[in-house]
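2024-03-11 09:14:02 INFO receiving multi-entity request
2024-03-11 09:14:02 INFO entity count = two
2024-03-11 09:14:03 INFO echoing inputs for audit
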Amino acid sequence: MMIIMKANATPQQVEAVIEKVKSAGLNVHLSQGVEATIIGAIGETHNIPTERFEGLEGVELVQRITQPYKLASRQFHPEDSVISLPGFNVGGNQIAVIAGPCSVESRSQIMETAIAVKEAGASALRGGVFKPRTSPYSFQGLGEEGLELLAEAREKTGLPIVAEIMSQVQVDLMVKYVDVLQIGARNMQNFNLLRAIGETRTAVLLKRGLSATVEELLMSAEYILAGGNNRVMLCERGIRTFETSTRNTTDINAVPVLKNLTHLPVILDPSHSTGYSEYVAAIARAGIAAGADGLIIEVHPNPAKAVSDGRQSLKPEAFAAMVKQVGQIAQIMGRTLASVEMSSKHGWA
Amino acid sequence: MMIIMHPGAPKEQIDAVIAEIEKQKLSSHPIFGVEQTIIGAVGDGHYVAKEIFEALPGVLEVQRISKPYKLASRQFHPQDSVFELDGFTVGGTEVPIIAGPCSVESKTQIIEIAHAVKEAGANALRGGVFKPRTSPYAFQGLGEEGLEYMAEARAQTGLPIVVEVMAVSQIAMMEKYVDVFQLGARNMQNFNLLRAIGETRTPVLFKRGMSATIEEMLMASEYILSGGNTRVILCERGIRTFETATRNTTDINAIPVLKNLTHLPIVIDPSHSTGDSAYVSSIARAGVAAGADGVIVEVHTDPAHAISDGKQSLTPEAFAKMVKQVKAVAEAVDRRLVSQHATA
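2024-03-11 09:21:47 INFO inference complete, emitting structure
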């Protein structure tokens, strides 16, 4: 950490900062320039907040040099993390394609969608049963009934299931049903929820918050990793910007940036990051070309009648066309699309 | 356009709005709801400023339904615009790659880079001679001397040259040298400059402003098109967001959105949109995978000693690797790089 003193800081103030650095167990490297004094604090600093020094008298600015996260960093774990799910791996050579409706609406809807996405080449099934809707008057999800339906769809297709968890109180219930807990963008910094999920050993799909920086995303992942759950996948799902022609702005830069900063797999969600079904395939291709480890896509057999996110949902036929295009991009990246065998081979029952 | 009245707006106000609609040679279609009245104003496509209605008493909001630009719109011109440059086309099947340094620094520098990028597969040479630098104390470019060097580089390599124009006063001089004018992000809404470029017949590489929406970009390109200069190439070069891990945020969505809204070609500038040479190849691939018609990349033979943008400049070797990757992606989306052939 670099502590930059104000131009008019007194020698006593500099001395006080040095004492504080030493008391944090760090070594001091002092450099006195013509205009300003800079105090380097050297040692294990990822768990020392910058606030500890920012409030001291005479301090202008405190800058971190090393990353404020550790378990999530590639420095700490140089090899890519490969997370095994029933039937395939995420983060290695295989590209995961998770697909399904925004919300589980009914038995026939989820079964029909599950079979359609499986046929089109999906490797996992998504479906929300607890829905974080902007309006409290919108459909809030089927709850446990929806989980039963997802489990039945898994039974039938062999696809592992990904469902969003919204609250700590849902953890015990959901880990009985789901293969992957999704943490939605609105909960990226729900730290109690992150800690509770860190205590489980269920794989996690952690979505980036709407206005969260890449660093904040990694800090949130650190909460889960710190609890001992190291099966975390990160998801870029678009950020809030001034642009209004799409629902969000896909931060495609985040894909290679995350691959550089962390060993965790990176999944792209072009459905939310664009908000329009006509742009999903183009951004899915872009994501894989940029190095993403997988995709999560909203698919609905009848988007016009979907209770949520119909505008951004692909029909099964459009999804199948997208999978083909993505497969070609994956191939030139030296990767293959993950495919899942039927459930009996994986002992679901 | 839809004119939404305040809840409870009296009949006199509604009538006044309808009268104004008719005065503007539009037809009015009022919808009387329980709480609010909405008045549709329908015309034959002539431009009417929405401000005319916004200021009338009782008006809550005015929403445009049709696009505020015409010449740039795909509705007006359904086929992709394809234009010829020296030795290749932009906007068709070919995906051209424009490469070169941020700034022309010296004759040896630009000649060396021109040969290196040509060798690695570039189809056009970029190089700034008038530089819009954030600090007035930073290197401002070599000016006309730099243009002479660019012309020399073109003579030696056959690569057409792309150079940024910063002011109306530079146009007459630059036209004599350059094949493509670049209009920089900071000048995207310099309307006098846009109009003056519209009067020329030199192709334009038109960069998106740092905080400009796609619609604002298309409106600005309309300035050039309306002057009769139809050879406009749009460029996504990243937008300003809250994210600090990269210099800008590549708005990759803009590629398919623009392909949908306009017939103009769209190229991606991953050098500026990331600001870091480590990420340029990934984003170049992503751009072409998303449907971009070309790539513009900063290349320098000695990035560490570049006068500007060294951090985001590729070495010629890294650029050659990027070209190979982009070629593979282009072929995966049924496009191809410009076929290499000897230039006159």
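2024-03-11 09:21:48 INFO post-check: Chain B has a mean pLDDT of 94.
2024-03-11 09:21:48 INFO post-check: The domain at 83-337 of chain B is CATH 3.20.20.70 (TIM Barrel).
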